[in-house]
Amino acid sequence: MKLIGKYSFGVGDRFAHEGINQLKALIKAEEVTGLHFEPVWNKSNREHQIVGTEPGAVREEADAAVKALGYKGQYFVDADHINLSNVDKFIDASDFFTIDVADYIGKSGSLEERFLPAVKEAGRIYRHIEEKKGKGNFVTEVSMDEVDVAQSPQELKFILREIAREGIPVQTIAPKFTGRFNKGVDYRGDLAQFEKEFEQDLLVIEEAVNEYGLPKNLKLSIHSGSDKFSIYPIMGKLIRKYDKGIHIKTAGTTWLEEIIGLAMAGGEALKLAKEIYAKAYSRIDELAGPYATVIDIDLKALPSPKEVESWSAEKYARTLRHNQADPLFNQSFRQLIHIAYKVAAELGDEYYPALEKYTDVIGVEVMANLCDRHIALLKK
User: Fold this and answer.
1) Are residues 264 and 374 in the same domain?
2) Please, which pLDDT band fits residue 144 given cuts at 50, 70 and 90?
3) In this structure, are 89 and 184 located in the same domain?
4) HSE of 341, CA atoms in CB hemisphere, 13 A
5) What is the pLDDT of residue 124?
6) Is 259 in the same domain as 311?
7) How many domains does the chain divide into?
8) pTM, rounded to two decimals
9) How far apart are CA 236 and CA 221, in angstroms?
């Protein structure tokens, strides 16, 4: 069976231009932390539809990055948050499947009534993929995180028992934790409660592996891992304490670093970054719709496009860069840019050439973000 390593990191890339920089960041992170994170390039069906790409583009990006850097380690391409209605288009390009069954979780009733429909659906999707890909040729993740109520450790154990009964060789599981995991910004919630839940879930996984015969490398998967800086030291401490693995999934944080890089490049690149903000500001309701449950934008905190038009490259970058110690950092501004990648896609004739022209400046931002602001925190 294809097995994912102890530590793995999901590197989403909206526009498939940062694969080399993302892989460089993971290589550098291993030098800094001593932890080898296997790269998993992930992109959801929704993101493909918005940007106008196909799953094969992710495979091409991953393969090209690996070849360019002479990388010899294992790597994966993740069909992110798929279901039976869209999985087929991911079959050829992917060898990691995030089976999302959150919509099948009931809001009331017994454990069976609430969670069995979701597990049964996961089983149907898994068997469909197995039929197409062949047994043992891919990694399976089950995702139940996009719901309103966190699953307790007792509920997670029940879910894992039923997953085992369905015959799903799950290697990563993404439960819902207490607190807000909003896009592009830090975790909002009780850190002590998160630590308690995370520790209990690690112990539940160990019990489930021993009792139900699930794969021995089964580990927790964290969605959305982008920019949740306050919980990284907690997770790092606990996976070291219990000698456990982890999968951390990020997606939009790399796109944000592209915009920061363009801003820092100045000139026409800065003008493009400002144009993207102005268009997003005028279409905020449309852009926020698909992300309504995972963003909290304070409209009063957003600068007007006219104000942004006068900003220097440094001010734009500092307002967007996720540095909470910087008085210029604006969470609402960052969240609006996070959901504005549709605007960039529509400006493709301008946006893609800019990514190529300013790749060196953007690469510095992408690498620093993933290595220094994300993975390095696991060792604190």
Assistant:
1) no
2) very high
3) yes
4) 28
5) 98
6) yes
7) 2
8) 0.96
9) 13
